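Figure 3 (text version): C-alpha cells given as input.
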C-alpha cells in the first residue's frame, strides 16, 4: 500500500486543531464557563443584526477584569444611561448625605418684613409647593403679618435656565423638557386645570397655581357634547407667561388636567410663595422681583430636602430628566458660584479622572436627553466598577438602580431570571438609541458582573435593540447562577 504523506498546510491545520482541543480540555471549569459566555454573547450580537453602532462591555465588578467586549471603545449616544455618570459624580462629589436648602431671609419690624422677603435656593430638585407653605407657616409662627415684596435670589446658578441640547425641541411644552433654576418648584411644571361651565356656551373654568405669573387669554367654551378639545399656546412675555386658550369641553365632563413645563421657573416660584403666604394670612403688598439679594439678611425660615442618597433614586429608577439636570447643575455650583454649565462639565470630568476612566467622553448635559453626549460601553463599565468598589457610594449607587422585573423602568422587563432581584440597571431610550447598563449580582458579593449595552441607529428597531440588551443581562445571570 502506498504511503500517504501530508503536505505542510494540512499538517499545520491539524496541529492547530489539536492545540485548540487540548487547550479547551485543559481549561478550568471557570475558564470554560467564561468561554461559553463569550460565545453566547457573540451569538446574541450577531443574531440581533443591529449593524455597526453597537458597543457592549462586560466586566468583573470586583476586579475590573474584562469578560466580554464588542466595540468597547465606540462612543455612542447613551440616552438616559448618561444618568449613570451624573448619579455617580453627584454621590462622589456632593456626598450621599447632602441635603439641599431653601430659605426665606429678611428683616422683621413690628410684624412686617421690609426691604423684601428673599426666597433663596440652593438647587433642591425636590422642592414642592407644600414646602413653600411650610416656610410660610414658619413665618406666621414668628408673628409676620405683612411683606412688602418678594425677591427671588437664584444666584446659586448662573442665568442659563434651559439645559444644554434641550433647544433641539424648542416647541415642546411637555414637563420632561423643563428648565432648571436654583429655585425650582414641582419640577418646574404647572398644571392647567379645565372644568366645564354650568351651561352650554358658558366659558370653562380655568385654574393654575401661581396665577399671578400667568396671563390667560382667549376662552374655552362649554359645548353640548363631543370630545374635549383644549388648546393652550404658551410663550414668555416679560415677567409673565402668556397662555392663549381656545377650544371646548362638553358640559358635565369631569375636570381635565394638563401638566406642562414652566417657561420662567424663578418668577413662577416667587408667585407660588406669594400664594402660600396669602394662604396663611400674610399680606404681600408688592410684587415679585428676581434679583441678587444681600447675603447678610437674617434667616427667617429654612427647608431642607431629603438626603441625596434618596433623591438620586429618581435617576436610576424613574429616569427623571429634571432631577438629573438639577444635580448636574449642583455639581457646577459646588465647584464655582454661580454654577455654570462649564463648571458642571468640569466637575464630571474630574470625577471621571478619579475613577480612572480612559478616554474623553463628550459630556453635554446630565440627563442624556436629546443628542449631545457621547460615551462608550467600556467607559460606562469603568464607572460601574469604580462605584461598586468605592465604599462611600457603593451601596447607594447600586440601590438607586431599577430592579429587573420589580420596579422603575425595569418593572416589566427581565422577570425570567434564575434568581429574583439580581439585575440592577439603568435603561435608556431615545428614537435612535437604546441602552441598558448596570449590574448582574451573583450568589456571593464577589461574583458580580458590571455590563453596558449601547445601541445607536435603532430607529424603527427599538424592540430588537431592547431584546439584545435584555438578552445580555439574562445570559450573564444564567452564567453566574448556573447549577444553583
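Below: residues designed for each position.
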Amino acid at each position: 500500500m502506498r504511503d500517504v504523506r501530508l503536505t505542510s498546510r494540512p499538517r499545520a491545520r491539524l496541529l492547530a486543531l489539536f492545540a485548540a482541543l487540548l487547550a479547551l480540555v485543559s481549561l478550568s471549569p471557570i475558564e470554560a464557563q467564561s468561554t461559553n459566555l463569550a460565545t453566547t454573547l457573540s451569538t446574541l450580537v450577531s443574531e440581533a443584526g443591529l449593524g455597526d453602532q453597537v458597543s457592549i462591555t462586560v466586566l468583573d465588578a470586583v476586579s475590573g477584569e474584562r469578560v466580554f467586549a464588542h466595540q468597547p471603545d465606540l462612543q455612542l449616544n447613551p440616552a438616559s444611561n448618561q444618568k449613570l455618570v451624573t448619579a455617580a459624580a453627584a454621590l462622589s462629589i456632593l456626598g450621599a448625605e447632602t441635603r439641599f436648602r431653601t430659605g426665606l431671609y429678611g428683616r422683621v419690624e413690628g410684624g412686617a418684613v421690609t426691604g423684601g422677603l428673599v426666597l433663596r435656593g440652593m438647587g433642591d430638585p425636590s422642592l414642592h409647593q407644600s414646602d413653600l407653605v411650610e416656610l410660610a407657616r414658619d413665618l406666621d409662627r414668628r408673628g409676620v403679618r405683612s411683606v412688602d415684596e418678594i425677591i427671588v435670589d437664584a444666584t446659586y446658578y448662573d442665568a442659563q435656565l434651559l439645559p444644554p441640547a434641550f433647544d433641539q425641541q424648542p416647541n415642546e411644552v411637555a414637563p420632561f423638557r423643563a428648565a432648571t433654576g436654583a429655585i425650582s418648584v414641582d419640577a418646574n411644571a404647572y398644571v392647567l386645570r379645565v372644568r366645564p361651565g354650568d351651561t352650554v356656551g358658558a366659558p370653562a373654568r380655568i385654574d393654575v397655581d401661581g396665577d399671578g405669573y400667568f396671563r390667560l387669554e382667549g376662552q374655552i367654551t362649554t359645548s353640548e357634547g363631543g370630545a374635549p378639545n383644549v388648546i393652550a399656546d404658551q410663550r414668555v412675555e416679560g415677567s409673565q407667561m402668556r397662555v392663549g386658550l381656545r377650544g371646548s369641553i362638553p358640559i358635565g365632563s369631569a375636570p381635565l388636567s394638563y401638566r406642562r413645563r414652566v417657561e420662567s421657573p424663578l418668577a413662577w416660584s416667587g408667585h407660588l410663595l406669594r400664594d402660600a403666604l396669602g394662604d396663611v394670612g400674610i399680606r404681600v403688598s408688592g410684587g415679585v422681583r428676581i434679583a441678587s439679594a444681600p447675603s447678610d439678611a437674617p434667616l427667617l425660615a429654612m427647608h431642607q430636602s431629603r438626603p441625596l442618597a434618596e433623591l438620586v433614586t429618581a435617576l436610576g429608577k424613574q429616569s427623571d430628566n429634571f432631577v438629573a439636570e438639577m444635580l448636574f447643575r449642583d455639581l457646577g455650583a459646588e465647584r464655582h458660584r454661580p454654577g455654570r454649565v462649564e463648571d458642571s462639565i468640569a466637575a464630571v470630568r474630574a470625577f471621571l479622572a478619579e475613577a480612572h476612566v480612559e478616554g474623553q467622553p463628550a459630556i453635554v448635559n446630565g440627563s442624556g436627553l436629546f443628542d449631545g453626549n457621547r460615551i462608550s460601553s467600556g467607559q460606562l463599565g469603568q464607572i460601574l466598577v469604580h462605584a461598586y468598589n468605592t465604599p462611600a457610594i457603593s451601596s447607594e449607587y447600586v440601590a438607586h438602580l431599577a430592579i429587573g422585573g420589580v420596579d422603575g423602568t425595569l418593572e416589566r422587563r427581565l422577570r425570567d431570571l434564575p434568581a429574583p432581584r439580581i439585575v440592577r440597571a439603568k435603561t435608556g431610550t431615545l428614537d435612535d438609541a437604546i441602552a441598558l447598563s448596570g449590574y448582574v449580582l451573583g450568589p456571593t458579593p464577589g461574583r458580580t458582573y458590571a455590563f453596558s449595552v449601547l445601541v445607536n441607529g435603532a430607529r424603527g428597531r427599538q424592540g430588537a435593540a431592547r431584546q439584545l440588551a435584555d438578552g445580555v443581562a439574562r445570559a450573564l445571570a444564567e452564567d453566574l447562577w448556573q447549577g444553583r
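The radius of gyration is 28 Å.
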